[in-house]
Task: inverse folding
């Protein structure tokens, strides 16, 4: 699994599509988008990470670099999203962080085309 992360609107989806020469439809078919949103009602983050790691690509926004929410539930979900990102990175063969559309490989190697 390739885990792609980075700030909101940093080019994660565009990068994944270009990496595999996927259309928008193929991206939706093969990748998990916005994985950080899946933590809201999830108690077992390990099990969620295992399920997500079965997909070829998982994309998640970084959530820890902004303003800390005042709402307790929002803070809890943000913490869970960060923990999920750590679990996904541990399970991934390749981890890529995108910033301004530029990829930085943090773990592993990008597949050759």
Result:
């Amino acid at each position: 699994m390739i885990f792609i992360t980075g700030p909101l609107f940093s080019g994660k989806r565009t990068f994944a599509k270009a990496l595999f020469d996927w259309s928008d439809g193929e991206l939706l078919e093969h990748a998990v988008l916005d994985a950080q949103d899946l933590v809201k009602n999830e108690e077992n983050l390990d099990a969620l990470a295992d399920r997500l790691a079965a997909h070829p690509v998982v994309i998640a926004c970084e959530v820890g670099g902004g303003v800390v929410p005042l709402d307790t539930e929002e803070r809890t979900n943000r913490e869970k999203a960060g923990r999920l990102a750590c679990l996904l990175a541990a399970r991934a063969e390749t981890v890529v962080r995108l910033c301004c559309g530029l990829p930085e490989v943090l773990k592993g190697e990008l597949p050759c085309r």
Remarks:
- The chain has four helices and five strands.
- The longest helix spans residues 72-91.
